[in-house]
Specification:
With 316 residues, the protein is of the alpha/beta class. Helices cover 37% and strands 17% of the residues. It has one domain: NAD(P)-binding Rossmann-like Domain (Rossmann fold). Strands 3-2-1-4-5-7-11 form a seven-stranded parallel β-sheet, with helices on both faces. It is globular and about 55 Å long. GO terms for molecular function: aldehyde dehydrogenase (NAD+) activity.
Length: 316
């Protein structure tokens, strides 16, 4: 009888949105999932939790022993000290991947691109970041490429899903824990915008890691998700989900945000992302589809309803 070997993955950021959904998907695919966290959740949910900090090189190295893959999905909470902490965190994962031979997987973003000049982005499109955060994202990917580790980067649009985190949906458009009485939309009507439902993105990561041995040593893919061609699809889905189909969104008051920014680091980061709401950046997923087949896709109404329910925004 053939013996089926269970693969092991270490996930940094398994308590967050991308990391948590990728962990759930990999568990469903039969992987042994190990999560590094400063404070392990009370419920394991099948994850083998290891206490440690992503900034502690020794802790990351110890947790990575025996891993076939390392998913680096960790970020400083609330965007605090992003510029100072992001690259050191990544360096620890790179070093662990070099020592163990594991494939390093990184969730990427559209921030690598200049939105004014990149209406459609391919995985190898020129990366001319127009923001500080985008420049760091470019540096992260370059750091991985220069390291020589086997790596896989999957870029996606703005996140939403049942696990709240640093995203526009839960931090700007609706108020978690409150019924939806209004929707603040950051973009202009008629400007396209891409959305990535986290459970679908996690499933795409799992499908790629299942076949990681057949991928190029440095692989880059784009997750198309839901493309809202005119900026009204997502808001109409929210209105339908809360039973108020006639609820019209209000435009985010961009001019007022600088008044809040000096006291709110998250707000400072959101302001910098304004160009991505003024210009469309659509991700071409042809390369992804070529290796995993059709992209995982939950119908938008179902995805939005699940997200709002988890956020406590739907009255029952």
């Amino acid at each position: 009888m053939e013996t089926i070997m269970t693969k092991t993955v270490l996930i940094l950021g398994a308590t967050g949105g991308v990391g948590g959904e990728t962990a759930r998907a990999l568990l469903a695919h039969g992987w042994r999932v190990r999560g590094l966290a400063r404070r392990a959740p009370a419920a394991s949910d099948g994850i083998e939790w290891v206490q440690g900090d992503a900034l502690d090189a020794a802790a990351v190295m110890a947790a990575a022993q025996g891993a076939d893959a390392i998913v680096h999905a960790v970020n400083p909470p609330g965007y605090r000290d992003w510029a100072k902490l992001v690259l050191p965190m990544l360096d620890n994962s790179i070093t662990a991947a070099q020592a163990t031979g594991a494939r390093l997987a990184l969730p990427g973003t559209i921030y690598n691109y200049d939105p004014a000049t990149t209406p459609v982005a391919l995985p190898n499109s020129p990366q001319r970041a127009a923001t500080r955060k985008g420049a760091i994202r470019v540096a992260m990917e370059q750091r991985i490429a220069d390291s020589g580790v086997r790596a896989m980067i999957l870029r996606a649009g703005d996140f939403f899903g049942p696990r709240p985190g640093n995203n526009w949906f839960s931090q700007g458009m609706v108020k978690p824990g409150q019924p939806v009485r209004s929707i603040l939309y950051p973009g202009k009507r008629g400007i396209g915008h891409g959305w990535a439902y986290l459970p679908d993105l996690g499933e795409a990561f799992a499908r790629l890691l299942d076949i990681e041995g057949s991928l190029p040593d440095f692989a880059r893919y784009h997750f198309a998700g839901t493309w809202d061609a005119d900026g009204t699809m997502i808001t109409r889905a929210i209105a339908r989900a809360v039973g108020k189909p006639n609820l019209k969104p209000s435009r985010l008051p961009w001019l007022l945000l600088p008044l809040i920014a000096p006291f709110n680091p998250t707000m400072r980061e959101l302001i910098e992302m304004k160009p991505f709401w003024e210009h469309p950046v659509e991700l071409d997923n042809a390369a992804l589809v070529a290796v995993i087949g059709p992209e995982p896709h939950t119908p938008l109404d179902q995805a939005v309803s699940a997200t709002l329910t988890a956020l406590g925004c739907i009255e029952r």
